[in-house]
Amino acid sequence: MLELSFEKEVVKTLTTGSNQWVERKGLYGATPDQLWANFRDKLNNNNYAKLQGHPLTDTEFNQVKRAIEVRTPYEAAKLLAAENGIGKVEVERDDAKLGTVTLELFWKADVAGGKSSYEVVRQAVRPRLAGTQDVNPDRRFDVTLLINGLPLIQLELKKATVELNQAFNQIEKYAQEGKYTGIYSLLQMFVIMTPDSTAYFANAEPDHFNKAFLFNWRTRDNHPVENGLAFTRQVLNIPMAHKMVSEYTVIDQERQSLILLRPYQIYAIEAVIHRIHDHQDGFVWHTTGSGKTLTSYKTAKLAAQDPGVDKVIFLVDRRDLDEQTTSNFSAYAANDDIAINEAQNTGDLMRKLQQNDGKVLVTSIQKLHRAVKKTQAQLATGKQSRFSKTLKQRVIFFVDEAHRSQFGKMQKEIRAAFINSNWYGYTGTPIFNENKKQLKGDLAVTTEELFGKVCHVYNLRDALEDQAVLPFNVEHVTTIGKDTLITRALEKENQRVKARRDKQGRLLSTADEAKIQAKIQAMSVKDLEETYLTPADFETDEHIQQVVQYILQKGPRKTSLGHGNYNAILTTSSIEMAQRYYQAFKAAKKTTHNQLDPDWPRIAITYSLSENEDQSAQKHDQMATILKDYNRQYHTNFDLTDLNLYNEDVAKRAARREAVFAHLQTDQEINLVIVVRRLLTGFDAPRLNTLFVDRTLAYQELIQAYSRTNRLQNRELKQEGQIVTFRVPAIMEANEREAYKLYSGEGSFNVIIRPTYQQAVLKFQKAVVDLKAIAQTPTAADDLKGTTAKVQFVKAFRQVNQQLNSLSMYNDFTWENSEKAFGIAQPEVESYTGKYLRIKAAVTNQEPEKVPEELAALDFSLAVGSVVLVDYDYLTQLIQDWIDEQQQYTTPDQAQAHMTDYLQNSAKVQASLNKLAETQPQQAQLIREAMPYIEQQMQQSQQQSDQNKEPVALNARELVADYAQRQLVKKTSVFAHTWGLDQTALLRVAREHTVGTDEWHHEQELTQSANLAAALQAQTAAGPKIPAILPLYRIKSQAAWRQFIEHDLAIYLQK
């Protein structure tokens, strides 16, 4: 189906049947001015009474336009949600007697009726930015959906042969060109669609678009909705489209971003609200990492708005989760029509529950339990308690991960006290009959027994198929090999039989030994591990040293050190083991240094106070030493009296979510956190990608722990969660299979776990064979004829790159003997990469309409793997890191002390420049020329810092672009003077010319500016010979300026 035909089908689906969308045919191809005029009519009509019959004047409407032309999608969402879900703007009337008026422009709750109107505009035109140096062409938007005249949703449609990611790339490019400004500033949601595939995502700032948050739609029972027209019917209907940009949108204050809910979150919210109306309890089973906090927040908010509900209480069972949940809720609620309260202690909790100023309260179950017991004790002695009134109110409880600590007993007593309550649990790992036997006492009940029937299910397999979480790459490493295990088993079995024979007064016979040998040989590795290994076998110094050396050697690759810089957790069996590991790492780092980061890994240790039950003096002393190390590294001041604050700092520094921790300097990051159980549940850290496991895990503990690593972050850099276990590999693999079966169903193991190394090698080998069938050598890629051959090469190379990325994460991966092992060596991969980049440059540096259709349909984004992809983006980011590192030094002494780092980073930039020059010589030449200018700007910034002035924040991309513009001005000034031309006209011709083509624009204006007399006067002996005859002068000057632009200015005109 062609794009135009598909567009018509989408619009027909939107506007027929019971839908309320109306196509505005009169606005076909509308300009921003026409959309402003349409919105102005809507605004006047919707606020007729407020305007007292006096429509807005031009001056007054300009005030509205200025209010709407916000800088970011986050600010746009705040404007639309302004007050109680009503978007408002204040206008000062020209007529002073009319005063100031507050106009309403959007109503969150006014869905499918009332004042809200719904219009469809096709092929809206967004011209280049007036009054700027914008050289980008006019753009057309396929389908724009207006609510109350405001463009809030935009659809980018492609035909079936175009890759969906290409539509995403196009929107990202338009954003970088500044096309989503002006009236388009309020866009909330993008939909990219072909007849056979569809995705949606929230608007973001131009440099924050992220394919990891490209969402697909699914039905209520988790079947994918890929067909474009089906998506249109299910999601873009009214009221659903209105809800998507209002009720199902979250404004995150902490991250200054806009969040659109996924379908499973919406279904869960609707299911729980339905249960609340019916006074029925239940639980939501959404896999760990799928955004349960966000889901529960939205549900709590809607529940609090129900007039039949008096209070909403969100319960957690740990102080850190209390703070984390409150922080998340507060970030979401800051721009929402809801209040979030946090209780500081039991007394504060009781006071806040008696107030009516906010319905949603976050607290720990321990605080609430104490409040209930205190009230019951008062009532038992005949005393009055104002809190007793609260116990009779309609209270809705939301519970996060309900099977930790003493929840069972506490919940039972709290439920009995709140006689008119309903309870809803949120869990990624429900307890079933199969695994409740692992739990003890009051906890040995299923989730359904605690909360009632499930409201909605979205398990680990659903999430993986939906790409809402990442798969796991699990590798089992053991310090006790199979041969050693069999030897130990034989020794122990011989000792056991010999002891029995000694009691019988007999010697161990040859027959006994043969039976023992046969018994051991017949046992599986799992049986051997279960029978003959104990925890003590893994608590030796030898075991610890082997694990430490493994992490030091393999950890950098696992955490993508150098181009991803993720962090890791090591979980151990006890606090004593955790502290021993800390000391072992500390000692090993004195002799082992990583080339990319000599101080890697920076280590912290954290455990909850409840885990340190024996409170031994030795552990306290060791912890005091660890705190001193931490304070020295991170410029903090913790001691044993404030371990809670220390633990909080470790968690936030490792998570890197909050603004203050999101962009730390390298030496202020934590690379490895050593824990026992802490941080293995409820810890949300997308920057964590690796879990090292030195203990045994099963069922819900295993899923919870592994799921710390599989949060989405950047699909090109983080493709899977990395898991490495160091004990009883056969037992752990069996535990994994049982856990996956329980939480994802039969046959889920191969979906959740990445293939074995040998399977991954076979996939890579096949990709290499396919690539070489198209281009036997990298040089052969230069001889590819025609568009079809280039498309085949691009697709084949992307497969090689994708398989290499996966393969390089395995422990066994090495480039040694790679020609024999893989059919390709590392230098050959790098050469193929260069050929790929040449094709990419040829496509991306041209206007879309000039690129062959088959090539234009391709997504050229490429993940960074074991072969570092050096392109313009990589190199400018490398320079940016270099600049940022230098700018952190506030005195000349500090800069001098780190001169070695400066020189090393400078050398790294130069090496990457040389590599870029192999594939993109003009880009490399521009950056190489710009480097002295960049260093000059860095020195000036440092001088400002020396003078106690605020240093200028430097941006590498902007510095390169600024240098290019300065060179354009400088060189055109000289050339224009030499040839008697107008420099402004020359610059215009240069900027609008595409190098390598015969298309020239505005030359007539430049020709008319030519001044023969001025050229002759400026002529020098060393300069070009200027013809004295006017016609010859004009012909030669035109040839000269074309040659000048095409060759001398080419590197400065790169787009």
TrEMBL record:
It catalyses: Endonucleolytic cleavage of DNA to give random double-stranded fragments with terminal 5'-phosphates, ATP is simultaneously hydrolyzed. GO terms for molecular function: ATP binding; DNA binding; type I site-specific deoxyribonuclease activity. Pfam families: EcoR124_C, HSDR_N, SWI2_SNF2, T1R_D3-like. It is an enzyme of class 3 (hydrolase). The keyword Nucleotide-binding applies. Keywords: ATP-binding, DNA-binding, Endonuclease, Hydrolase, Nuclease, Nucleotide-binding, Restriction system. GO terms for biological process: DNA restriction-modification system. It comes from the Bacteria. Its EC number is 3.1.21.3. Residues 273-448 form the Helicase ATP-binding domain. The type I restriction/modification system is composed of three polypeptides R, M and S. Subunit R is required for both nuclease and ATPase activities, but not for modification. NCBIfam families: hsdR. Belongs to the HsdR family. This is Type I restriction enzyme endonuclease subunit.
